[in-house]
Design a protein that fits this description.
Rossmann fold; five-stranded parallel β-sheet; alpha/beta; about 240 residues; single chain
């Protein structure tokens, strides 16, 4: 789908669920199935969606096993150059925290939420938005872990901690006055591995993020006179 040159730019920054990991095949979902692809389809050519997902990405932690040489699993370390390479941006969607639940990091839900807050602060301090301002931020609370299979040892004690994320993410978002979407309200982790999303989950999340993006980008502040309200693709031709 081709976006207009003046389309809103949305950066989706996340882990394997943003990358599109398929828990049934251990491969990658097609673009059309991933929640970022659903988001792009829902918004049409009014927005340009940039998917920046990486398997194993954490919020701010260096992984001592994966990515230990160059630290590329550390979300904060990659976020800054990522913002600069894709600027100007109108909205940054952050969905991280699931990998922080791994036993090797020994991080609790309070600190995971605080770590996402560090990422929010980094975006807010950036000049990656229009005219050198900071882009808006939407934080997605990862859904609780489900029934773990192959990842049971890796995420030991993770399910209990994951159920506490929503409370701490909400507090963090309220303190920073940033937008928040709780993924658990629209999907559950797949029974295939307890960590990743089924196609239905991707579809539900993509639609939910699209609804929030429309509200954030076109409704929550006065528009510039030259800025047109959101119009779904085909609406100008009278399509329904």
């Amino acid at each position: 789908m081709n976006a207009h040159d003046d389309a809103k730019a949305i950066l989706c920054f996340g882990d394997s669920n943003t990358w599109g990991y398929n828990p049934h095949t251990q491969q990658r979902y097609p673009r059309s199935v991933r929640w970022t692809g659903v988001l792009a389809r829902e918004l049409g050519d009014a927005c340009h969606v940039i998917a920046e997902g990486c398997n194993g990405r954490t919020t701010v932690w260096d992984d001592p096993i994966e990515g230990h040489i160059d630290g590329h699993k550390n979300g904060l370390q990659y976020l800054i150059p990522c913002l600069e390479s894709h600027m100007p941006l109108d909205l940054v969607v952050l969905m991280l925290g699931t990998n922080d639940l791994k036993k090797k990091f020994s991080v609790g839900p309070f600190d995971i939420a605080a770590s996402v807050g560090v990422l929010v602060d980094a975006v807010r301090r950036s000049e990656a938005g229009r005219g050198g301002a900071a882009p808006d931020v939407l934080v997605i609370v990862p859904p609780p872990l489900g029934r773990l299979s192959d990842f049971a040892d890796l995420f030991e004690d993770g399910p209990e901690k994951s159920r506490q994320l929503s409370e701490h993410f909400r507090r963090m978002a309220a303190e920073r006055r940033c937008h928040l979407l709780d993924a658990a309200e629209v999907l559950t982790s797949s029974d295939a591995d307890g960590v990743h999303f089924d196609p239905e989950g991707h579809a539900a999340l993509g639609r939910a993020v699209a609804a929030r993006a429309k509200a954030i980008l076109w409704c929550h502040r006065p528009r510039n006179r030259k800025e047109q309200p959101f119009q779904a693709e085909g609406a100008e031709r009278g399509e329904e």
